Amino acid sequence: MLESEHASYIHRNVTNSLDEDIHTGDLSAQLLPATLVSSAQVITRQQGVLCGTQWFDECFRILDPNCAINWLAKDGDRIVAGQTLCEVQGLARALLSAERNALNLLQTLSGTASRTRRYVDEVAGINVKIMDTRKTLPGLRDAQKYAVRVGGGYNQRIGLFDGILIKENHIAAAGGIQPVLEQAFRLARPGISVQIEVENLAQLDEALNAGAKLILLDNFDPDKLRSAVRHTGKRAELEASGGITIENLREVALTGVGRVSIGSLTKDLQTIDLSMRFKT
Q1: How many CB atoms lie within 10 A of CB 254?
Q2: How many domains does the chain contain in total?
Q3: How far apart are CA 190 and CA 258, in angstroms?
């Protein structure tokens, strides 16, 4: 995504979030004088990886373009409980109206980045990529995909438009592995990857013979993964997926696959606990 597209996407995310919350107006904020200026600090109650500072900033700047935000950490930094992350100064009404939306986005993306970093750290020293999937929060896919990258992971594909992933139902509907791959190769434009999912070693062999170069091994146990790696050699890149947890990740990675995709990076979300404290 280009920088201008990224900025536009963030603006849409934040605008939708603010509209959902404020709608016709923040009644509670109207208790304060319109010209009152205040300041606040954002503090984390948990350790993790910071992510989402641009979304946070946009929440405040939409409501108060003249507000000042001073970050003491940046996206990708490891943060610890009790750490002050940033300081904000601006119109008190704007700070109060933006507070929850800004924290929601920041803690959600920090949660995704933190979870990803935990998985990446687990396979440190092994030549394997930790990949995400399309199992993301509605409306926040690009944001969560960004958070995965901040956490040290990789994006498998953004959506249905930028990569072909042939799954079980595609194979069944098309009449088999070879015909569906032939059609995929015809359709794929330059820069569009073609990946096929297989469920056993016989399907793996069929996919290799049909010219597949990127193969997803669905729910293979470690022994079958090792067999698949030995059988494939350098003919294709292999990706393990299905049933992978932090507990078995390293064993899976040591089988020799080049990629491991994990839906829980973005699906099973645990946010980082953040607090915004106003100065009196």
Answers
A1: 14
A2: 2
A3: 22
Which residues belong to the active site? 100, 135, 167, 197, 218
Q: Which two tokens stand for residue 175?
A: 């009449």
Q: Kindly report, residue by residue over 47-104, the tens digit of the pLDDT.
A: 999 999 999 999 999 999 999 999 999 999 999 999 999 999 999 999 999 999 999 9
Domain carrying residue 90: 3-120+269-278
Would the pTM count as exceeding 0.70? yes
Q: Looking at the structure, tell me whether residues 71 and 181 fall in a common domain.
A: no
Query: What's 95-162 look like in SS3?
Result: HHHHHHHHHHHHHHHHHHHHHHHHHHHHCCCCCCEEECCCCCCCCCHHHHHHHHHHCCCECCCCCCCC
Q: What is the C-alpha separation between 119 and 153, in angstroms, rounded?
A: 9
What residues contact residue 5 under an 8 Å CB cut-off, 6+ apart?
none
